[in-house]
From TrEMBL:
UniProt domain PPM-type phosphatase: residue ranges: 158-371
Superkingdom in the source lineage: Bacteria
SMART domains per record: PP2C_SIG (SM00331)
Protein name per Swiss-Prot or TrEMBL: Stage II sporulation protein E (SpoIIE)
KW Hydrolase (keyword) present: yes
Alphabetical keyword list: Hydrolase
GO molecular function term, any single one: phosphatase activity
Amino acid sequence: MSAAEDRARRSLIEAPADLLLDRLGAELATAYGITSVELYQVDYRLAELLPLGEGAPLTSPGHPAWRCFDHQEPILVQQVGWFPVGMRGERRGVLRIAPVPADPDTVEALAGIATALGHELTAVSAGTDVYRAARRSRRLTLAAEMQWELLPARSRVRPSFSLAGQLEPAYAVRGDSFDWSDDGDRLWLATINGTGEGVAAALLTSLATYALRNARRAGLSLADQAALADQAVYALHQGEQHLSTLLMEVELRSGVLTVVDAGSPRLVLLRDDDVHDLPIEAQFPLGMFEGTDYREQRFDLRPGDRLFVVSDGVVDAVGRDVRYGDTALERFLRRTGPLAPLDAVRSLIGDLRAFVAGDLIDDAVVVCLDWTGPQPSGGRVSTLPDR
C-alpha cells in the first residue's frame, strides 16, 4: 500500500461520521490531484444510483456507473473513474472520481480506497442518518422503515457461498422479510412471508425475527429455533396471528442443508439448468398453535447449486388480469444462471415490475443462495472429506 493510499484510508477513519466524503475528497486532491469526488448509493429498489450531494439519479443500465456496480470493477471513461463501494459482498453503490489518470497503480489504489469507504459507511451508519436518507428516491412508509432496519444486509459473499435478498415493494413493504448470519462453520437463513397490513404486520415480523435470532445465538437446533419463535408469537397473539417461515442452515464444511418448513415461502433449486421445488415437509406456521413440534429435513448441496426462496407475492403477481405463475417463474429462473445472486434477484424483481407495469401491490420477498462448494474460509472451513 502506498503512503498516499494509507493517508486516504486514515482520513476516512478519522473523519466525523457525516463528513466522510468531504475529508476523503480533500485527501485525494492533495495526493492525486483529483478535483471531483461523488458517492452514488443504490436505492432501496435496486433501480437507481442516487448521489449523496447535488445531481440527478442514474437509471440507465448502460451507464458506466451501473456497469461498475454490476460487474464490481473500476470503469474509466475519459478520465472519469467509477469504483465499486461495498463491504464483504454487500454492494452499497459507486464512487465517481475525476480526473483519474490511466495508470494501473493509481486505479488499483483508488479501488482500495473505495472499498475502505464502503467499510466506513457501514461503521458510521448506526450513528447518522445522512447516508440512509440519501438512498431514498421517495419516503418510506413506517412499516417499510421498520422492515429495512431489521435486515442484516442485501448481499453477502464468502468462499463457500454467495447470497442476496430483496423486499418489494421496497418503499411500502409490510410483513415479508429475511435474515441471515454465518460464523465460518454454518450459514443460517430465515425467510418470512408476513401477514397483515402496515405497522401491525411489521411488528409481528420483528417479534418472530428477534425470537429466531435469540434462539440461534443460544446455540439451539433449527427445529428448536422454530419452536421458540412459535411460542413467542403464540404467547402474544394466541393463534390469531401467525407467520409462514422457512428456516435453513448450511454446514459450510459439507454442504449439508437443513430445512424447517413452517408453512413457508417456496424453495426452488436450480441445478444443471433444471428447476424444481425441493420436497420439503409443510408444517404449521409460527404462532398458529401452542407447543408445535417442528421436524428438520436434510439435503446434500452440490457445488454450483442455486437456491431461490420466493414468497407467494411473486407467483401471484398480476398484470393485465394475468397471473405471473409458476411457468413464468421457472423460465425466468433458468435465465439467471450466469448472474451473481444480487443481479439475479434484481433481474427477477425487474421482470415482475415489468409484468405488473409498475411497483408490486402485494408484498414479495426473493432470496438467492449460491453454493460454490466446501472450501477454506478464514481458516475455519475445510474441504469435504471423501465419503
